[in-house]
Amino acid sequence: MAVRIYTDEIVNAVCLNIASRKGILPTEVEVQLSWEEEYGFTAEVWTQGRSQYLVEANLLEAIEQYMLKQYNRRVFRSQITLDVDEEFWADIAD
Question: What span, in angstroms and rounded, lies between the C-alpha atoms of 46 and 81?
């Protein structure tokens, strides 16, 4: 069954992914998603007073991990489609 996750879950996915990589709590991570014609989907992430930018591949990786840990579903990047209208969402195909 196909699944759609929205902004909050995408942000949670990024927070969990970054926290795991840096050995910090997910609550110590702030995320701002964006979409620009030139760069596509990106996120600015703040941790420990520092900022970094994530590209779409990083977002897809975070969503892959999130789907595995939260939904017990192994998905691949090719199954994930990001989109934005009034809010961000990701469609995960079967």
Answer: 25
